[in-house]
Write a structure and sequence with these properties.
Distance between the termini: 79 Å
Structural class: alpha/beta
Strand order of the largest sheet: 7-6-8-9-10-12-13
Largest sheet: 7 strands, mixed
Oligomer: single chain
Strand content: 15-25%
Order of helices and strands: HEHEHEHEEHEHEHEHHEEHEEHE
CATH superfamily of the largest domain: Response regulator
Radius of gyration: 23 Å
Amino acid sequence: MRIAVVCGLLASLLLATVLCPTCSFAAEKQVAVIWEGKSGMTKRVHMGFLHRMRAIGSEVKIINRMELPSIQDAERTFRELEATVDGIVFLRSSGAAFLGKANPKVPSFVGGCNNPVDLGALKQLDAPEGNVTGVTYFIPYEKRFEVLRKMFPNVKAVGIVLQKGHPATPIDQKGTKEQCDRLGLAYHEVVAENAAQLLQGAEALADKAQVIIISSTGLVMDNTVNLVGIQNRKRVPLFSYAEGRAKLGALSELAARDEELGSMLADSVVDVVVKGKPVAQVPVKIDPKPSLVINDGIAKMLNVSVPAELQGQVQLVQ
């Protein structure tokens, strides 16, 4: 009798395999994606991530917990999901800063954030030493200023507008000031906690600086159109660290491609969660080909010419 039962079970399994040759008996992997607040950049990273996951065809269930009301809600959600999923993607700089102190129990991934080393998420990008890897929109400031100086060879003073309390602010502050000091440029800044402060400060900044930098902080990016008004009125060009600002009227941007970073993030998640690759062997990825975008109409209005040495790299928008 016992032999007959075993044979019956084996026959059932064999039949299931014949009828469904692509079925897997391995448990489905689950990955959660969370972030706090509203952010166009984060949405673009998320979109690139989802597109790539579908293209890969990986057997991963994505659990989305998007635009949570506060970082406290996001942290609480992280801890709740940590017990049930195989990996967590915690987007935005605030998420990376949290992961630096979280000691996550499952592989965790950053994205839509500034340099995760500066945010405290890990100690080195090339060989993450803990349970955190992912992608970053970080571009070395020396590379940013190499482009800025080619575009504005006679610049003597640079200003930057920043958001008070944003985790990326001290990173953009430090990186920008270091390059100004290195190149002998005067450095000016505005650190604002609301739109009124930001725009009032930018008005004053336009009287001191020959180029104003749009930082990669939410308040500043959300007020791009108003900053463009100041640029056009006072004829002081805007140079953006964030993607998508040139389309809104900023003169130029050198920025990582958000959707491409999302695609690269998906590859890292699959490597770790599905293929079992150790986190330490999955470096934090930086966009290898950040986009240099110039608004052609604004360039003509401000009488700014694209240097010959940059023309092969530039994407023009109207």
